[in-house]
Write a structure and sequence with these properties.
Blueprint lengths: L2 E4 L14 H16 L11 H15 L3 H6 L5 H4 L19 H8 L6 H22 L1 H23 L9 E2 L2 H14 L4 E6 L5 E6 H18 L6 H18 L32 E2 L1
Parallel strand pairs: 2-5
Antiparallel strand pairs: 1-3, 3-4
Length: 284
């Protein structure tokens, strides 16, 4: 298990690169959504048990529910009863105005608490700028959103016949895993400084192909092992799609990161860097 930090010594491309506006905008919007929601500082959602219930309702209103995506309609009151309430007197109400296809988009900006948000956005902050500079802003945003949709629908198909089909999926993990896959394709030999917990967080330098390859292997192993409530399959689909998208979009490009690579930023634990267990749904 390693904590990746981009190496300051990674050679930049000549000339100043464009600012990664899309990456920073995605981070800002995600942080703002959390701040204004029940997991943030908005006092309108109450405190204590009332706030926990509000978080569960919020996730099911704006998160992507596999059963809703497959059936193309919101959950009925009967199916909502299959979901264990976060507090004894918390009741989930039907959301007849919810559009399942659009819930995939909104779910990419909803996170189940600060730990979940920071685990996701740290990876986007570290790896996103280099990918955005190479792909360009428009293609980067298209890649990010398209892979988020692909990973979410792939997870929904896999969970369609399981009890987890009624649980909300929240977070940008699938899309950010796509960014990691794209980074691996574009900069496989970029030097990445990693902090190894088993060696008392001793910083060691490894190529990106090794660090991200090990991360992907861990996600794949977690899918086969059943995981711990985290939607690891979303990570696997997103990472694979990001690599393939970039392979098709930039078939001959692979080299050092663009100018001013991000430095000195840690990821979270490898097993759940892109997901922290939420109150209700299957986290990304």
């Amino acid at each position: 298990m390693v904590l990746p930090v981009l190496d300051r010594a990674a050679p930049p491309a000549p000339g100043p690169g464009p600012a990664p506006v899309v990456t920073y905008a995605l981070i800002a919007v995600s942080a703002l959504v959390l701040l204004l929601g029940p997991s943030g500082v908005n006092p309108l959602y109450g405190t204590g048990a009332a706030r926990l219930c509000a978080e569960q309702r919020y996730e099911h209103r704006w998160g992507a529910v596999p059963a809703e995506l497959i059936d193309r309609r919101p959950l009925s009151a009967e199916r909502l009863q299959q979901i264990a309430p976060v507090t004894p007197d918390c009741v989930l109400s039907p959301t007849p105005g919810k559009v399942p296809a659009l819930s995939v988009l909104t779910s990419l900006f909803v996170h189940a608490g600060w730990l979940h948000l920071l685990g996701n956005l740290l990876f986007l902050f570290v790896f996103g700028p280099g990918v955005e500079r190479r792909l360009g802003r428009a293609r980067f945003l298209l890649c990010y959103l398209a892979i988020g949709y692909l990973a979410t629908y792939g997870f929904a198909l896999a969970e369609a016949r399981t009890p987890d089909a009624v649980r909300a999926l929240v977070g940008a993990s699938g899309a950010i895993a796509g960014v990691l896959g794209a980074y691996l394709r574009l900069y496989p030999r970029a030097r990445v400084t990693t902090l190894v917990p088993v060696l008392l967080f001793l910083p060691l330098r490894f190529p990106a192909w090794l660090v991200l390859g090990l991360w992907f292997a861990l996600q794949w192993w977690s899918v086969r092992d059943g995981g711990s409530g985290v939607a690891y399959l979303v990570h696997v689909i997103g990472f694979t799609a990001g690599w393939l998208f970039t392979w098709a979009a930039c078939p001959r490009t692979a080299g050092p990161p663009a100018a001013r690579p991000p430095t000195g930023r840690r990821g979270d634990r490898a097993a759940d860097t892109l997901a922290a267990p939420p109150f209700t749904g299957a986290p990304e």
